[in-house]
Structure formats: C-alpha cells, structure tokens
Amino acid sequence: MIDLGLTKLAIIGAVALVVIGPEKLPKVARMAGTLYGRAQRYLHDVKSEVSREIEMEELRNLHKDIQDSAQSFKSEVETFKSEVENTVSTHMDEVESAWRGDTAVMPTTASTDDIERKARDFRRKKLAKTSSMPAWYKNRQGTRQHVLSGAARVRKFRPGATSNTKFF
C-alpha cells in the first residue's frame, strides 16, 4: 500500500510529537492505529467480495456451458433415436413385405468393411487351424514351415543362382 520506511516513520513521529504534543500523542497514535486496522479490514473485505463475485461469475459461465452441452447432446440423441427408429421401421416393412411375398427380396451387396472383416476372420481361422497342427503332420502334408520373402523367393528360383550362401 504505502511504502513507509523506518526513516520516514521517524520523521512523521518527530513532527507529530512537535505538533500534537507529548500528552495527546499516545491517544492519537492509538486512534491512527485503529483507523489503519479498520482500513486494512475494509480493503480485505472488498478484495474477498470481488474475488467471490469473480468465482460466482465463472461458475455461472461453467453452468451455462454445461447446460448448452447437455442440450446439444440431448438433441443429438433425439436425432440418432429418430434415425434408428426410421431404419428399424424400414427394415421391418421390408421383412413383412418379403414374408407376405409382395416383392422379391433384393440381395444386398456387402460393404468393404464387411469384406475386410470376413477376410480377417478367415486369416485368423486359417492361422489357428494350421498352427495347431503338429510339425510331423505339416511335413507329411507339405505345408510350408518357413515363409520366404519376395526377394528370397526370386533368388531361390532364379536360373543359375545357388541357394547356399558362402561367406568366405
């Protein structure tokens, strides 16, 4: 607040002693101290009230943001719900019409995601099937034991190339 050093306080005290006098100086000093304390408490109360108001405003803004988010989420859920209901009713109508024999059922084409999923499942099943076989059975059936890379396969089947590597 006020930058008062020791020298400034000594000068103020000397002037007050001369102006007020030695008998009234303790009363005036006491009153000045109480007024200074009241001013400090008042400033502290004002600061805390302002900080409380700022926090309340932040909470109100946060509450408003949360309500807006909840409202947008609710509208998205309602939109999704109506889309699902429309899709289900469309499919139910198709099934009922196919059951009654009104129209011929058109085979649906599989999407790329379904094809990729089926390919992954096939590879997994094949891997599980071939990896669970014992090695002697694989040897008898001619199943590959080691997979060669493309470059190794080209080198192996290139005319005039030897398959053994010589180090020296």
TrEMBL record:
Compartments where located: Cell membrane; Membrane
Bilayer topology: Single-pass membrane protein
InterPro entries: TatA/B/E (IPR003369), TatB (IPR018448)
Record-stated family: Belongs to the TatB family.
NCBIfam families: tatB
Molecular function in Gene Ontology: protein transmembrane transporter activity
Classification of source organism: Bacteria, Pseudomonadati, Pseudomonadota, Betaproteobacteria, Burkholderiales
Gene: tatB
Protein name (record): Sec-independent protein translocase protein TatB
GO cellular component: TAT protein transport complex
